[in-house]
Write a structure and sequence with these properties.
Length: about 300
């Protein structure tokens, strides 16, 4: 007997937007698994590069941004694509959410909404250089992914950090300056993944920024990744952050990255609403729920 999911998905045409990885860049291990799950449920699933001019996005009932992992190098182009795609068909997450989340100055928006976040200052091109003098700190761009152009500095490495800022500002990038949260060395970073408005699963990874690693060096984005059972406090902070997102009701998927602040309580490091890695290979039990949420969104 045909399942309820299969019946509801009978005519759903779904595109999973990705990018063209190079030999050095990562491939989305979850894409073939997700395509198989959607097709098994009766949907038509296709994988397409977001920047492929030959793709007719209007021919799909739903476009799901999945692994567009080069977007941070081409933010304006990517946001423009999202807006065009959103006019042609239903896009998740929608273009307005993409535009807001593509600029990490959203951390300031979360802080103003009362969400505990890692303290953050912003240095735009032309701003005077203002770096901590008494503690380790992190410099990274407001438009970045996978720790691109991110580095950790001790106070005595200020001159190197200034050179990084000069390079970033020359490229038109605004920098974020944050204290290095030392608790991450022991407790790691926890990623709480939501799909369809519900907690899907959680993972924990080790610190990405090792001392002495150059800002323009390629980093391992998810070192020592393992499943994690979130605490009530972590879940509360994550839900608070998601509630503060503009047009939160239109968000299909989200990943909230948390660390323990100086007070030992969880706070938001980043909120990933564009192309978060789902880590389905680590959490295969989540595949049916993801497929069901996507199919539901297509109708």
């Amino acid at each position: 007997m045909e399942s309820t999911v299969a019946r509801s998905a009978a005519r759903a045409r779904i595109a999973l937007a990705t990018y063209a990885p190079s030999e050095e860049s990562p491939k989305d291990r979850d894409l073939p698994v997700l395509v198989a799950a959607l097709e098994e449920a009766g949907a038509e699933a296709a994988v397409a590069r977001w920047d492929d001019p030959e793709v007719d996005w209007a021919g799909f009932d739903l476009v799901v941004i999945r692994s567009t992992w080069d977007y941070s190098w081409r933010v304006a182009e990517f946001v423009a694509w999202a807006e065009r795609c959103g006019r042609a068909t239903r896009l998740v997450n929608p273009a307005g959410v993409v535009r807001w989340n593509a600029d990490k100055r959203y951390v300031g928006d979360l802080a103003r909404a009362g969400v505990p976040v890692v303290p953050t200052r912003y240095l735009a091109p032309g701003d005077p250089v203002d770096l901590p003098e008494d503690r380790e700190f992190v410099v990274k761009p407001t438009a970045g992914a996978g720790a691109r152009y991110a580095a950790r500095y001790a106070p005595e490495e200020r001159e190197t950090a200034v050179r990084q800022l000069a390079r970033m500002h020359a490229e038109g990038l605004t920098a974020m300056v944050q204290p290095y949260v030392k608790n991450i060395d022991a407790g790691g970073e926890r990623a709480l993944q939501f799909f369809g408005g519900r907690l899907l699963h959680a993972s924990r990874k080790g610190a990405v920024l090792e001392p002495g690693t150059a800002y323009d060096e390629v980093k391992v984005a998810h070192p020592r990744l393992e499943p994690w059972e979130p605490t009530p406090a972590e879940l509360s902070v994550a839900e608070h952050a998601l509630a503060a997102v503009p047009d939160a009701g239109e968000v299909l998927y989200a990943r909230v990255d948390l660390v323990d602040g100086e007070d030992g309580e969880p706070c938001v490091m980043e909120l990933e609403l564009i192309e978060p890695n789902l880590f389905l290979w680590l959490h295969p039990e989540s595949v049916p729920a993801v497929a069901q949420a996507i199919i539901t969104a297509a109708h």
